[in-house]
Amino acid sequence: MDNKIKKVLILGGGPSKIGSETELDAAAFQMMTALKKNGVQVLVIDNNPFSLTLSEVQPANVFIKEINLKNVLDVIKKESPDAIIPIAGGLRAIHVTQELLNQGILSDLGVRVLGISKESLKVINNPDKMKIAINSIDEPAVPSKIVRSDSEAFEVVREIGFPVNIKKVNHKESTERIICNNAEELSDMLEEEFEDDSVCIIEKSIVGYKQIETVAVRDQTNTKILISGLENIDAVGVHSGDSIVISPVQTLGDIEYQSLRTATFKMMDLLNIVGLCHIQFALDPNDGSNYYITKINPMINSSSALAARSTGYPLVYVCTNLLLGNSLPEIQLHANYHRLTPIMEPTLDHVVIKMPVWPFDNVPEANQHLNTTMKSVGSTIGVGRTVEEAMLKALRSSQFSPRDVLPSMYEISSDELISQLIHPKSDRLLVLIEALRRGYQVDELEELTKINQFYFYKLKELLDVEELIIKEPMKLSTIEVAHDHGFGDGMMAETWHQPIEKVRELYHAAGEYPTYKAIEPSAGEFDQNIRSFYSSYEIENESSQESEKTALVIGRGGNKLGPNTAADYYTAEMLIQLHRIGYKTIVMNNNPNALSLSPQISDKQYIEPIQLGAILNIIELEKPVRVFIPGNRHFLLKQLKKYTDLNVQVLPPDQETGVVLPKDVTYALNFFVTQDESYFISTEKLISNNKSDLDYVTAYETPYVLDNEALQRDIEESKSHIQSSNWIGLVQILFNQNKKGESEYVGIRPLRLTETIFLSRATGINWVRALVRFYTKRLDINELMKNMPDMSNRVTHMQATFPFKQLNVKVDHANSSQEVGAKIKFRLVDDK
C-alpha cells in the first residue's frame, strides 16, 4: 500500500438519471468502507440527497455541493486531500477531473488522481483519439473517415464496404446517423449533405452485430484478470442499457471469447489502467473472429455492477485496494472469502439475466422504440441454474405484477407484431414470445430481430412448460418441471384458479422445498461463506436459518420513476439501523444496481422475484421475527397479513390511507407522533410546478417562515387533527394559504419517503433510524427531540430531477411520479 495516501476525496455521482441510478452511490459506499479499513480518511462531495455514503461519513467530512470545478477545487483547497477518486462519480466527475488536470491545478497542489490514468482520460468520449489508441495495438476500431466530396465518400466506401452510416460534422445540427445500404442511397444522401458545403463522416455500419462486454481489473504490477463477460441478447442498434444481458456469455466459442479477453488486457496495458475497466465489442454475427472495440469505460457503471452481482467477486473492494497501491496477491479479504479470490478469474455455475425497466408508463409522450439512445431507468435480474430459469425469473421481476402473472400480447395485430420484431419497443421479450406462439420459425425470427437462434429455442422451451401447466393442472410432476424452469407458485395458482396455499401444500406434502445456492466466484471450487443466494429446486441447500432474531427487509425491486431511488436508500438505512439494534438482517431484492444489496449492509441477500411465493419460501427457511414491506406493495401486504404468525411492518408507512388529500397546498408542518404525544419538527414549503396543485409538488424547502402567533396556531390545530387520526410515526399536516394570506388546514398524511430523507438532511437527524427504533420500541423520544437543531438561520432546498431531456420530450408540468432523482442545497437565510 502507498503509505503517502492518508486522506482521499471521493467525487459522488450527483442526482440519479437515465444511465446511472444507485450503482454509483453503492460503489462509493463500498469504496469508503475499504478506504477506512486501510486507515484512510474519507471525504465525500455530492449533492444527491439519497446518497448513503453522505450519511455514513463523518459530517465534518461531507460536502453537500454540486460536482463542478469550483466546488471540487474549494474542497481540495480547504481539506488538502492526498488524492481524489472520480471513478464512482460518472462522466461529470471525470470531466471535472480532466479540467483540474488540464489546468495543472492538481499537480500544483500535490493531489493525485486514483482509478483513472492520464492515458484513459485522453480517450474517454473522444472517438478520434480512441480509434488511434485502439489501432496502435493492432486492435480494430470501427472504420470511419471525414469526407468533403462525393468522390472521397465513394472511395471510403470501396475500402470499408456497405452498409455505412453518414453524419454531418456540425455540432449545431443533429448528430443522427443515416444508414446507407447501397450506392444509390449513398448518392442521394450525399447530394443533400453537400449542398451547403458540409463536411461528413462516413462510418462502417455495424447495426446487427453482436454486442459483447467485458469487465476486468489490473494492478500496478501488470497482473490482470477478467471478472466477467456479458452478452447483450439484442444486437447493435439497441443501446446496451436497453438490451437484455446475460452472463456468462452463451453464444461464443472459446477461441472467440479468448480473443476478446486478450484485447481487453491489451487495452488496459496501453491505457495504464490500475483498477477496473469495462470494454464493449461488436462482433460480426457471421464471423465471431471479426470484431470491433466500440467503447472503453475505465470507471464504475451499471455493467461493472452487474459483473460484480453476477459473480460474487468483491469488485469495488478489490479495486479500491488496487488504487491504494496493493497488488492483487496482497489484497486481504473478509474471512468469508477464500484467500485466493482476488487473483482467481470467476467461474459461474449459474446464469444471470438482466431485464431493463422503462419509464413509459409515467412518460407516455416518449418514443418507445428502442434505438441507440438509452431509455431504461432501471433493471431487474433473474438468477438460475439454466438460461430458461434465469430468463423467466428476470421477466417476472421486471413486470411488477403483484399476482405473479405475465401480461400477454395476444391482442397485437400481425402487422404490429412484425413491425415490433424489426423495430423493437420496451415489451420486446413479450413480443418475441407471442411470435413463437403464433408459429413463427426460429430462422425467420433471427432474420427479423438479429437475435441469435439460441435464445428463441430457450423461449420455446418455456412455452412448452407453459402448455404443460395448462394441460396437467395440480400435479406434482407439473410443479416440479415448472419450478425447474423458473415458474412461480403464483403463476400456477392463477392458471389453475387455486389459492397459492393449495399449490404449495401439494409439493410440500411430498417433502419438496426450494433450496438456495450461493452466488460466489469459484463455482463451488473453494470453501467460501459468501452470503448472497438465489433459489433452486436441487437437493443441496447452501443457506440455513441465519438466527433466532432475524429481520427480513423486502426491497423495491427494479428502479422505476417516482421515489424508487430514494426507496433504495431508505431500505439500506433500515438494514443498517436494524443491525445496530441487534437484529441479523436479510434483504430480498432483484435490482443489480441496488445500494441495498451491497454485502456490507446486510448479513444475507436473496436475489429473487419480489412476489408472494418467493417471499413465503424465504420466510419458511429463515423464520424472521420481523418482516418489513415497502409502502407501495399493497397486494403483498394484504396477502402477508393473512399469515397471522408474521410480524409484518410497513416502512415507510403505507400511503394507501383512504384519506382524500387536497388539491391545493402551500406549506406543511411535520411531526413525530407517538401513542401519547405529537412532537413538532419543522415547517416546510411545498413547491408545485403547476399552480399549487399537490400532485405537482416536486420541490421542498425548510423552514417555511411563519410569525410566532401563526406558527403556534398551526401547531395547535395540527395536534388536534393528529389526535383524531390515530396515526403514529412521521406525520405531515397540510395547509393552504389563499390570496389574502390566510391559512387553512386542508389535509393530513404520513410523511412521504422522499421528504423523510429531505428532513434528515435538513435537521441532521437520521429519521429513518428514528422510525426503525420507534417501531422496534427502542426510541428515546425525549433524547431525540432534545437534539433538534435551530433551523432558523439555514434554508434547505431539495428539487426533483426528471428524465425528459434524455427521453427527448417536453413536459409542461412534471409530477412526482416522473421523478428520476433529486438534488439538494443549503444557504444561509440572508443569502440570496
What's the total helix number? 28
How many E-type strands? 30
CA-atom Rg in angstroms? 28 Å
Low-pLDDT regions? 171-175
What can you see in these coordinates?
This protein has 28 helices and 30 strands. The protein has 832 residues and is α/β, with parallel strands linked by helices. Strands 14-13-10-11-12-15-16 form a 7-stranded antiparallel sheet, sandwiched between helices. Strand 27 and strand 28 form a beta hairpin. Helix 17 runs antiparallel to helix 18 (476-484) and helix 21 (564-580) packs across helix 26. The longest helix has 19 residues, at 453-471. The protein is globular. Residues 171-175 have low confidence and may be disordered.
Features:
7-stranded mixed beta sheet, alpha/beta, 28 helices, 7-stranded antiparallel beta sheet, 832 residues, globular
Question: Care to give the gist of this entry?
Answer:
The chain is an alpha/beta fold. The chain is 35% helix and 22% strand.
Q: How would you summarize the topology of this molecule?
A:
Layout: E1 7-11, H1 23-37, E2 41-46, H2 52-56, E3 62-64, H3 69-79, E4 83-85, H4 90-102, H5 105-109, E5 112-113, H6 118-123, H7 127-136, E6 144-147, H8 150-160, E7 164-168, E8 178-180, H9 183-193, E9 200-204, E10 210-218, E11 224-232, E12 245-247, H10 254-270, E13 275-284, E14 287-297, H11 302-311, H12 315-323, E15 351-357, E16 378-384, H13 387-399, H14 414-422, H15 428-437, H16 442-449, H17 453-471, H18 476-484, H19 489-496, H20 500-508, E17 515-518, E18 532-536, E19 550-554, H21 564-580, E20 584-589, E21 604-607, H22 612-622, E22 626-629, H23 634-640, E23 648-650, E24 667-673, E25 678-688, E26 697-702, H24 708-725, E27 729-737, E28 743-750, H25 753-763, H26 767-775, H27 781-786, E29 794-801, H28 804-807, E30 821-828
Parallel strand pairs: 1-2, 1-4, 2-3, 4-5, 18-21, 19-20, 19-22, 20-21, 22-23
Antiparallel strand pairs: 6-9, 7-8, 7-9, 10-11, 10-13, 11-12, 12-15, 13-14, 15-16, 17-18, 24-25, 24-27, 25-26, 26-29, 27-28, 29-30
Helix pairs in contact: 1-12, 15-17, 17-18, 19-20, 21-26
